[in-house]
Amino acid sequence: MKFLTLEGVDGAGKSTHIEFIADAVRTKSAHVIVTREPGGTDLAERLRQTILAEPMPPVLETLLIFAARADHVTRVIRPALAAGSFVICDRFSDATAAYQGAGHGVSAELIARLAEAAHPGLQPDRTLVFDCPYEVASARLAKAGRTLDRFEREDRAFFERVRAAYLALAEDEPVRVHVIDASADAAAVRKQIKSALQGL
After folding, report:
1. DSSP assignment letter at 93
2. Which residues fall within 8 angstroms of residue 65, CB to CB, at 6 or more apart?
3. For a surface tag, which of 40, 123, 128, 182 has the fewest beta carbons within 10 Å of its beta carbon?
4. What is the pLDDT of residues 62-85, one digit of tens each?
5. Span 23-49, mean pLDDT?
6. CB of 54 within 8 A of CB of 106?
7. Secondary structure percentages of the chain, helix, strand, coil, to 5
8. Is the overall model pTM greater than 0.90, yes or no?
9. Dihedrals φ, ψ of 153, to 5°?
C-alpha cells in the first residue's frame, strides 16, 4: 500500500507539479491514481463546489469536508490501495487540521475524531508540504487569471496560521512529512520532490 498526499497553502504550486510527481511515481508502480480533496467522487465534487463557494460556519465546513472525504475514501482510495495501486491525493486530513483547525479555529479534537470516523486506520505513507511565503503565493494566485475561491481570498493572517500549522506538522512527523521549498524555481522544486519520494 502506497498513499502519497500533497499539502500546502493555496498558491504554493501543488497543481503545477502533480503530473511530474505522478510520472515519478510511475517508475515505482505501474498503477497510479491521482485524485483530490474535497472531491474524487461525484458526490464529493458536488460538496466541493458548495464548500468552496458558500460562506458557512467553520464547524459546518469541517463536517461537509469530512462527509466528502468519507465517500472518497470508501469509493476510491481504499479500493485502489487494496488493488495494489499507488494513490496520489491533492490534500487529505492534514489540510483540514491546517485550514479549518489552525485557520478557522475548529477544535483539533473534533477534527481528529472525524478523521478516525471517516478513514479509520488510514494515514498517508508520505506527505509533501509545498511551502512558500505569503508574497509568493498571493502573486501566483493573482497571475492565475481566474476567479479565486473563498479560501484563496483569505487574508494574510489566515495564510500565516495555515502555513505555521503545516510547518509544525512537519516538525512533529519528520519521517512522513517532507517540506518542499516551493518558492524555488521549477527545476529546484522537482529536485526536492525526487529526494522526498525516495524510499517509497
Report:
1. H
2. 37, 38, 47, 51, 96, 100
3. 123
4. 999 999 999 999 999 999 999 999
5. 93
6. no
7. 55, 15, 30
8. yes
9. -90, 0
Residue in the structure block whose three cell numbers are 489552525: 102
CB 25 within 8 A of CB 86: yes
Which residue is associated with the grid cell 466541493?
48
pLDDT digits (tens, 9 = 90+) for 130-169: 999 999 988 888 887 777 889 988 899 999 999 999 999 9
Q: Which residues touch 199 (CB under 8 Å, ≥6 apart)?
A: none
Peptide bond into 120 cis (omega under 30): no
| Domain boundaries 2-196, corresponding CATH code | 3.40.50.300
Domains of the chain by residue range: 2-196
Cβ atoms of residues 127 and 94 within 8 Å: yes
Exposure string over 115-131, b if 16+ CB within 10 A, otherwise e: beebbeebebbbbbbbb
Which region holds residue 159: left if phi is over 0, alpha if psi is between -120 and 50, else beta?
alpha
User: How many angstroms separate the CA atoms of 159 and 137, rounded?
Assistant: 9
